[in-house]
């Protein structure tokens, strides 16, 4: 048979409960705000002030946004930041593309005419930090479609059906308008001035291509060029020359890197049973590749660069490459 707890102990326990509650209350006032910050990574942000740089890491906390004007438009509300973890919330179904292309962070802001009191935006600006200028160019070229109309904005820009896309330094910028009267070109140029210049390294890469005909398009492939897992950071240019469509793939790097890449090509040819003929031309290493899938093409090792030339096996085309390095 259980003995009952004496009345005096029960009264003591009841008296202690308010004291315990008070202790928890006092300790609860000394909380760490970081532990109960319910803002997501897509929370408030701000775009850079004129002449300043965007945060190099969008994961870093941004200062409270300041309302400012660009080309007659004022910022509406607060911006939002996105990282690799939540980019899908803004570009659902397309996030993996950006991430595979080198995406580091995204800042989104909206603007309305400065003289209006409307809270609804006329313009949305998306600034993608792509890590490198060449990677920003790759996204621009992929998203601009066939025969885009060039505009003067950033280092390179194109008009779209809903606005303007351009690149500057490591940033890929998409400006979309919700009002047909918005002077989007003027706004794009003014917004470009708020971004740091950075190093538009792709211009140096472009200069390495030969002048061998009309350039139809240029694009950048970060990984797995033509299905080959050892081919990364390839810039490709398509030409129309002599009635043919010729594609030139350019890979650049240090001399040891290019030697290692050439070795990877040789390993691939051997393992895949692809035949090739070595051609001596101007002191360069030139290989005529007899590929049953791609057709005959040339592989040209030229110091700190390697060219792949597709669409022709006419050795006369080699004069555009070997004369540069011979």
Structure description:
The structure is a single chain. With 326 residues, the protein is an alpha+beta fold. The protein folds into 2 domains: 44-192, no CATH class; 208-325, Protein Transport Mog1p, Chain A, CATH 3.40.1000. It is 24% helix and 31% strand. It has helices at 7-28, 95-100, 133-143, 184-192, 202-206, 255-272, 319-325; strands at residues 44-45, 69-70, 73-75, 79-82, 105-113, 123-129, 149-151, 156-160, 163-168, 171-177, 214-223, 232-241, 244-252, 275-281, 284-290, 297-301, 305-310. The strands form 2 sheets. Strands 1, 2, 3, 4, 5, 6, 7, 8, 9 and 10 form a 10-stranded antiparallel beta sheet that branches. A 7-stranded antiparallel beta sheet has the order 11-12-13-17-16-15-14. The chain is elongated and about 70 Å long.
Question: What is the topological layout?
Answer:
Layout: H1 7-28, E1 44-45, E2 69-70, E3 73-75, E4 79-82, H2 95-100, E5 105-113, E6 123-129, H3 133-143, E7 149-151, E8 156-160, E9 163-168, E10 171-177, H4 184-192, H5 202-206, E11 214-223, E12 232-241, E13 244-252, H6 255-272, E14 275-281, E15 284-290, E16 297-301, E17 305-310, H7 319-325
Antiparallel strand pairs: 1-4, 2-3, 3-5, 4-5, 5-6, 6-10, 7-8, 8-9, 9-10, 11-12, 12-13, 13-17, 14-15, 15-16, 16-17
């Amino acid at each position: 048979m259980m003995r009952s707890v004496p009345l005096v102990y029960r009264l003591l326990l009841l008296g202690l409960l308010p004291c315990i509650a008070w202790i928890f209350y006092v300790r609860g006032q000394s909380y760490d705000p970081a532990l109960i910050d319910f803002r997501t990574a897509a929370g408030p942000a701000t775009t850079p002030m004129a002449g300043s740089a965007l945060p190099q890491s969008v994961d870093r906390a941004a200062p409270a946004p300041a309302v400012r004007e660009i080309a007659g438009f004022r910022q509406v509300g607060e911006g939002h930041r996105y990282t690799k973890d939540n980019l899908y919330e803004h570009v659902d179904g397309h996030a993996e593309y950006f991430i595979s292309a080198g995406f580091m962070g995204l800042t989104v802001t909206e603007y309305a005419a400065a003289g209006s009191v409307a809270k609804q935006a006329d313009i949305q600006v998306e600034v993608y930090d792509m890590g490198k200028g060449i990677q920003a160019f790759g996204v621009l070229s992929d998203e601009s479609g066939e025969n885009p109309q060039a505009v003067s904005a950033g280092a390179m820009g194109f008009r779209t059906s809903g606005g303007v896309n351009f690149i500057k330094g490591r940033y890929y910028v998409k400006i979309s308008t919700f009002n047909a009267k918005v002077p989007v070109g003027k706004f794009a140029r003014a917004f470009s001035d708020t971004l740091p210049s950075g190093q538009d390294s792709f211009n140096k890469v472009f200069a390495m291509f030969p002048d061998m005909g009309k350039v139809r398009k240029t694009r950048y492939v970060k990984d797995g060029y033509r299905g080959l897992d050892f081919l990364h950071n390839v810039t490709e240019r398509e030409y129309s020359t002599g009635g043919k469509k010729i594609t030139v793939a350019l890979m650049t790097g240090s001399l040891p890197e290019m030697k290692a890449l050439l070795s990877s090509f040789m390993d691939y040819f051997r393992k895949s049973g692809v035949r090739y003929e070595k051609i001596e031309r101007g002191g360069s290493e030139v290989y005529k590749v007899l590929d049953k899938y791609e057709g005959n093409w040339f592989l040209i090792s030229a110091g700190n660069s390697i060219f792949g030339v597709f669409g022709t096996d006419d050795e006369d085309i080699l004069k555009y490459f070997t004369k540069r390095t011979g």
